[in-house]
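Bench notes, afternoon.
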Amino acid sequence: MVQTWFQGPNPILDDQPPALLPRAGDLSDVGPKVLAAARQFVSTAR
């Protein structure tokens, strides 16, 4: 389940996969966005 989330498109991240964002932009900019998406995923995962 986590691998699918990490590699798949994410609506919170403008449909970008979390795995690609650190390469696509400045880590200080994309890092908090990826963490927010991860926190949202964990809070809704069952």
